[in-house]
Amino acid sequence: MADLPELLAQPEVQIAILVVAATILLLLVLRIATGRKRGTAVLLVGPCNAGKTTLFYRLKDGTTALGTVASMQENDGYAQVRNDKGRVAGQLRILDLPGHPRLRSKMEQYLKDASAVVLVIDSADITPNKTEAAEDLFEVLTHPAIARRRVPVLLACNKADLETQAHSVDFCRRTIEKQLDAMRKTRQALGGDAGRALSALGKADKPLSLASLRSPISSASISAEKGEVGEVVSFLAKLL
Ligand SMILES: Nc1nc2c(ncn2[C@@H]2O[C@H](COP(=O)(O)OP(=O)(O)OP(=O)(O)O)[C@@H](O)[C@H]2O)c(=O)[nH]1
Ligand SMILES: [Mg+2]
């Protein structure tokens, strides 16, 4: 049998090594390129007090620590994502953004590189917060990078544990859909949205339908405080 130096001197073996090395390199480049295209972080956005920080800690540590203080800055961390068999399937970077309107300008910068967006809303308090929630969704969906990459969005209707006060997912979704439709009309009439991908909201002469937009928009009923976040975890697992 030929020893290693002899084997390596054979042109067929050298070609085989080159082909394997080139394939590995190509796979690495493809992985980096597609990773970039898909974005690097899942953003938690939505009105003040909706439960974003509570959800952030629930996903990151499985606890509700520090969820009660209004956030002044973003929380950045990694969540272990389990598949439906309960095994850790991978980890994702999660960014919890403050809901206060004065601090929301940062959202624009993070949207450039988002792999998914979770819009957290308080389903017991949707009516007074519908304008803010729809505004956030407008900024998300019409962001050119989100529209181009068809970034998935989850409408997470939180505080489902407040059974008598919490509205159904359907009600929350329809409320936001209507508000977004009205907002689109006003903003189109006013102009000034140059650079935003307004076409991502569908045809201007038709009522807006969340079900038929460029980015897939799913909805879930959750309770971040009680740890009932299975639908968020399933949404995240699909990103891996
Ligand atoms: N009942 C109930 N309360 C919740 C739930 N999730 C969060 N809360 C409460 O809602 C309040 C606001 O929660 P946060 O997580 O701080 O809300 P936020 O969206 O991060 O708010 P900002 O940082 O101000 O944007 C806190 O008092 C939480 O304890 C939930 O699932 N059920
Ligand atoms: Mg917060």
From TrEMBL:
Some GO term, biological process aspect, for this entry: which one?
Golgi to plasma membrane protein transport
**Transmembrane domains' residue ranges:** 13-33
Q: Which PROSITE patterns match?
A: ARF (PS51417)
Q: Provide this UniProt record's keywords sorted from A to Z.
A: Endoplasmic reticulum, ER-Golgi transport, GTP-binding, Lipoprotein, Membrane, Myristate, Nucleotide-binding, Receptor, Transmembrane, Transmembrane helix, Transport
Membrane topology type: Single-pass membrane protein
Q: What would be one Pfam family of this protein?
A: SRPRB
- Name the source's superkingdom: Eukaryota
Compartment(s) of residence: Endoplasmic reticulum membrane
Of the GO CC terms on this record, one is: Golgi apparatus
Name the predominant localization: endoplasmic reticulum
The Swiss-Prot or TrEMBL record annotates one GO molecular function as: GTP binding
Q: Which family does it belong to?
A: Belongs to the SRP receptor beta subunit family.
Kindly give the PANTHER family that the UniProt entry links to this protein: ADP-RIBOSYLATION FACTOR-RELATED PROTEIN 1
NCBIfam families linked: small_GTP
- Entry protein name: Signal recognition particle receptor subunit beta
Q: Mind giving the lineage of the organism this protein is from?
A: Eukaryota, Viridiplantae, Chlorophyta, core chlorophytes, Chlorophyceae
